[in-house]
Amino acid sequence: MHIVVCVKQVPDTKIIKINPKTNTLDRRSAPAILNPYDAHAVQEAVKIKRKTGGTITVLSMGPPQATAVIKKSIEIGADRGVLLTDRAFAGADTLATSYALSKALERINMDLPIDLVICGKHAIDGDTGQVGPGIARRMDIPPITSVIEVTEVNQEEKTVLIKRKLTSGYELIQSEMPCLLTVEKEINDIEYSPMPNMIKAARYEPIIWSVNDLENVDRTQLGLKGSPTIVGKMFTPPRPEGGKKLEGSVSEQVSQLMEILMEKKDLFTLTSSR
Amino acid sequence: MNLDDYRGVWVFIEQNDGKIEGVSFELLGAGRKLADKLDVPLAGFLLGDGIKSLANQTIAYGADQVYVIDHPVLKHYRTESYMKGVIYLAQTYKPEIILYGATPNGKDLASAVATDLSTGLTADTTMLDADVEKRLLEASRPAFGGNIMATILCKKHRPQMATVRPKVMKALAPDYERSGQVIEEKISLKEEEMRTKVLQIVNDVTKKTNLADAHVIVCGGKGMGDLQNFQLIHELAETIGASVGGTRDVVEAGWLPHEQQIGQTGETVTPKIYFAIGVSGAIQHVVGMKNSELIIAINKDPNAPIFDVATYGIVGDAMEIVPQLIAQFKSLRTEKGGEVSYA
Ligand SMILES: Cc1cc2nc3c(=O)[nH]c(=O)nc-3n(C[C@H](O)[C@H](O)[C@H](O)COP(=O)(O)OP(=O)(O)OC[C@H]3O[C@@H](n4cnc5c(N)ncnc54)[C@H](O)[C@@H]3O)c2cc1C
Ligand SMILES: Cc1cc2nc3c(=O)[nH]c(=O)nc-3n(C[C@H](O)[C@H](O)[C@H](O)COP(=O)(O)OP(=O)(O)OC[C@H]3O[C@@H](n4cnc5c(N)ncnc54)[C@H](O)[C@@H]3O)c2cc1C
């Protein structure tokens, strides 16, 4: 069983500081982290490997310092990691990103055939969720998005049983392998990394590939050149006008509010307080 | 690629079990505006098994044409079968714009189709417009945590595609007198060639909060102080039969589960009445509730940005105001002679 997990380095948007008055943000305040969904993707690979045995490879595309997310993945339990880094990849939209990643996956697959690719549901910075299905199409394997449970992996039959989240509820899907999953956070809890993993991660040197390490690459499909979308302009959303502030003492304000609300009283169901 | 070969605005009509998703109607509303601006027809496209009858509804909500592919293999949504249909339609009829709802299936389908058509796809759009002269779709989406909007363009590839957040665009009132053209297409699909099978669909309504369908929502923010005071939010909601929502800070404090978070990284809601109590009104929260019909804000800071989106605001201490509000509603109930409900 060979599982490849795609992992992205992202700024921690939770820590990004925002001034609510000016609506500006300080990007430098955010440390770079492993995309949280991708941590769950690596964790799921570890859980599967516990049952099936095999190898977990992580693949990341990004600047040289993105080796940090590969080391983090080793801590969680990946066996090895490849960083795809080259100026030729810069400025990629999701189409060019999935192209570059699929070329790296092609090379990984030649080395050791891939059974399963796992991605995060989305990256918290670009936030499109489009890269996973894009990779699957380029590899011509089925994409299964919004996965909340890997119910069964059948190595003899080469099939997986997957629970996929829907708007209300879920569906149970059987797919041939290889296939590509994108995972939701609720799929698992990140486990505490055992000491040997931490030591391995600290010493680990990721494999580094540039565009020259990939075969049959059409350079016009890479980076900015290979990206059909561009950011046209950035603007702050228009500020709405604001409504009426009620005046008077607290009880006067509450009475005014009650009057307003009573015009819509059909919407309320005044249940007993029990 | 000759860009001028591509004309028309298309909307993916997402149906589950023969029922059209709300977002598809919203997109017909938004698509109608784009089509009128660009002076081209608006088309819906519909895939499924035994779904032909939904074409009329699609026309009623604004489409001039409906493309239908009806096939048993399309009974349940699957990327591999649906994308085949959409790619066939797009290559045959060459629309310049295709919109999809940013639902799990809509996003999945659009991402796959964009890859095979080698075209651009803008994700999770919240504003749509068109540059008529350049015939460009201007699809804008919140960026960098939502404080800035980015307009994404796809200049040299067609169709221009976007997924659009549910509950942001407005559906037109249906007009069943409208006439339109229904175009049926056939494609060859074989079940034995499918690599994925949908074995079971479980509608888990218990797990889903009823926020999306609620008419009245009481949303509490960090300004409630602590978990104990937050009970006032629950009490008000219970008294008037509303659903409870919260801000991200409230969810992170563990006062509410994530399912009840409203905003960019939570639910988008459009109730008839929305109470925002002790909520500052950060942009990431506001995008998830600003289309509510009537917004009541209670906040002790007169400069809190929530007052910019509120219909009515009360500047004051929630600990004082909310109990009075609850008491007023409760007294109404007893005046009514112990009747349980107004409705
Ligand atoms: C403001 C802004 C708006 C943008 N809007 C769009 C848009 O609408 N459409 C568009 O096509 N592009 C857009 N982009 C570009 C997009 O962010 C990049 O292409 C990005 O490299 C990949 O997209 P994502 O972050 O959305 O990834 P997602 O598709 O959300 O990522 C899903 C998963 O794919 C894998 N993955 C993604 N990137 C990598 C990577 N570099 N290395 C390894 N694994 C990875 C991970 O498993 C991840 O969890 C935008 C960029 C900016 C700055
Ligand atoms: C990428 C990203 C995504 C995000 N997604 C979301 C999201 O989906 N949803 C979301 O809500 N947030 C989201 N946020 C967080 C958002 O920026 C705000 O931090 C959050 O909404 C603030 O929550 P709050 O209003 O409860 O708390 P605060 O901002 O702390 O506001 C508390 C308010 O209560 C008022 N107050 C205090 N005491 C009282 C009192 N006694 N009576 C009345 N008023 C009182 C204060 O004046 C203040 O205005 C996101 C942030 C980022 C960066």
TrEMBL record, chain A:
InterPro entries: ETF_a/b_N (IPR014730), ETF_b (IPR012255), ETF_beta_N (IPR033948), Rossmann-like_a/b/a_fold (IPR014729). It comes from the Bacteria. Residues 22-218 form the Electron transfer flavoprotein alpha/beta-subunit N-terminal domain. Pfam families: ETF. This is Electron transfer flavoprotein small subunit. It comes from Neobacillus paridis.
TrEMBL record, chain B:
Residues 9-198 form the Electron transfer flavoprotein alpha/beta-subunit N-terminal domain. It comes from the Bacteria. Transmembrane segments: none annotated. SUPFAM superfamilies: Adenine nucleotide alpha hydrolases-like, DHS-like NAD/FAD-binding domain. CDD domains: ETF_alpha (cd01715). InterPro entries: DHS-like_NAD/FAD-binding_dom, ETF_a/b_N, ETF_a/FixB, ETF_alpha_N, ETF_asu_C, Rossmann-like_a/b/a_fold. Pfam families: ETF (PF01012), ETF_alpha (PF00766). Belongs to the ETF alpha-subunit/FixB family. This is Electron transfer flavoprotein subunit alpha/FixB family protein. It comes from Neobacillus paridis.
